[in-house]
Amino acid sequence: MPDALYKLGLLKARQGQPDASKQLLTRVRQEYPESNAASMAADFLNQAGL
Known about the structure:
By secondary structure, the protein is an all-alpha fold. It contains 3 helices and no strands. It has helices spanning 2-14, 18-31, 36-48. The radius of gyration is 9 Å and the shape is globular.
C-alpha cells in the first residue's frame, strides 16, 4: 500500500496537481512512517518544495 500511494503521489505531481500530490505523499509518511516509500516521499516533497 505505501508504494502504491507513493507512485500515485508522483503521478499527480507529473499531471500538474501539486496539492493532490502533497496530500498522497504526506499520507504515506503519516500512515507508513517506517516504509521505504515514506522516506522517498519525504525526499520528493523536499526537492519539489511541496
